[in-house]
Structures are given as C-alpha cells and as structure tokens.
Amino acid sequence: MTQSNDFAKVQVNAEKAMALLKDRRIRQIPQNYTIWYEYLTDTNPDLMRAVNKLVAENGTFTEKIARQIYSEFFTFEKEGKAIQETNRLVQKSMDNVIGDLNISTTDFLEYSEHLSGFSEKAATLSVTELQTEIGAVINRTSAMADSANALKNGLDVASREIAALKRRLQDVQKEALTDTLTGIANRKAFDTELTKGITKSQETDTQLCLIMSDIDHFKNFNDKHGHPFGDQVLKLVANTLNGGIGRMATAARYGGEEFGIILPNTELSTAVDIANDLRVAVSAKKLVKRSTGDAVGKITMSFGVALYAPCEDAGSLINRADEALYLAKNSGRNRVKHMQSSLEATG
Fold this sequence. Notes:
Elements: H1 3-23, H2 30-41, H3 45-58, H4 63-73, H5 76-121, H6 127-176, H7 187-204, E1 208-215, H8 218-225, H9 227-243, E2 250-255, E3 258-264, H10 268-283, E4 286-288, E5 295-298, E6 301-307, H11 314-330, E7 336-339, E8 345-346
C-alpha cells in the first residue's frame, strides 16, 4: 500500500469514528474518539470484543465503559508521559551535577598549578616570602576543602533526587499494571505475565495452565442493585481470587466481570482443583447491601481451564480457556470445565 493510500485509509477511519460518535450520541472527546477509531481499524480484536461485550450487557456505550476500555487498552500514554517527565528531571539534576564538577575541576587544576609553582620556587624564597606563600597555600587549601564539601553536598542532593524519581517511576509502572477498581493486575499486566509464562514454559519444559472465569448473571447485580453495588461485587471477587492462589500465580481482571489466572509450573489436574477451590470460596461469600444491611444472595462463578500446548501462542491458549468457560456457563454455571490439549472439553 502506498503512502497516499495509507493516508486515505486513516482519513476514512477518522471520518467514520466521528460519524459514529455523532450517530450514537456519544460525547465527542479524545478518549471516546481514540476508542472508536481503534475499534474501526479492525486491528485490535481484543478491544473489539471487550467493547461489543460491554455494550451488549449495558445496552449502550456509557462513560463508565469508556473509562474501563481506555484504562485497559490505552494506559501506555500515562506511563509514557511519566517516563518523559522523569527523564527531563533526571537530565536537569545531572546538568546541575556536571556544572558543579566543571567548577570543581577548574578549581582543582588551579590549586594543583599553585602547589607546583610553590614547590619549584620555595627554595629560592626568603623567610618573609616563604611565610607569605605558605599563607596563600593555606588559603587555597581551605577554599578547596569548601569546594569539595560543596561538590559532595551537590552529589548527595542529586543522589536523593534521582532515588526519588526512581521510586516515582516504580509507582507509575505499578499503577499502569493495576486495575483501578479492584486493585489486582489489569489486562496489560495479564498479557505481559502470560507472555513471560509461555516463554518460561518453553525454555524450561514445564507446564503452564490458564484459568478464565466469569461472574454468573453479573448484569443482574447492576440492574437490580446499581453499578456501585456491582463494583463492590467485583472487588470482593478480585480479593477472593487473588487470595486463593500461590505467590507465583497471577490473578488479573481481564475485562468487565471476567478474570484470568495464570498458573506457572502447574499440572492440569492441579489447576482444575484450584479453580474448584476458588469457585467454592466465591460462592461462600455472603452479599450484604451496605445501604440497607439486607442480604442479597450469593455470587457464583464459572471457570474454564486450559493447559498450554507446545508452540501455542497466547491468543490460542486464551481462546481454549474461554471455550471451556463458555461450556461451563452453558452447562448450568457455577462449575469448572477444562480443555484438553486435544481441544476436547471435559468437566
């Protein structure tokens, strides 16, 4: 495709995105435009599926959906800006240190030259002249001590500033990989950890399992009790899943009410047992509406488990776990199904 054709395609997609926003009466703001432009390019199937699912569940594209989609798929912008700002501040701190070093280097050279000159002519000086020169050396030495202390203080300040910036970057990175609502890993972190897990499984010839899970009838919670209550359900489920897995495993909010759990070095039978334990733990939670104190039933979840097959990519593994999950939901919900490497799903 030529450059002019590329530009024409971009222009068409841009016009389609703006027309879609207008037609569906969606606020024409950069966040919504970005989501729907990406949707219309047809190059991000995960985003398309997430948008379709959330719109189908809610009946329309809401501001809450927009925030969720943008957070899951476009958080790199915030991370990038933080990196740029940190780089600017580090450069500023380094410029200050380099300035101090340049001044100190000049001072040290002059001091060295003065001492060399004193050494060469000391033997030819009279007592009075020698006393005068010694006094000058003492003054220069005192000045150099002050200069050295100033340089040390400058280096100490720079060290503290850079350490603080490093902590800031770590916080930004953690925030970029954390789901803002539930506090567990987000979709970006899930994708990263799954890729790492697959690579390690290939390199070490160890097993890797993936669990995909979904809250049963979650839309009913939102419709009957409101979205704030639905958010509390998501938090409760996230904490239960995250607390029920080992230190090496990763629980993440995959999108909406769907969660993914990555289990490195885990056999399929063990992963199925973990999924069943989590299912029981979730269903044991009693839901109480805070505003009234009334009991509102219990949560149930369906789980799909898949064992990584050699040479399989992440998308294929996710799809197989999803197939097992859908079978669990179609079989009556609140159960676990697993996908054999032969693609045959069983209970």
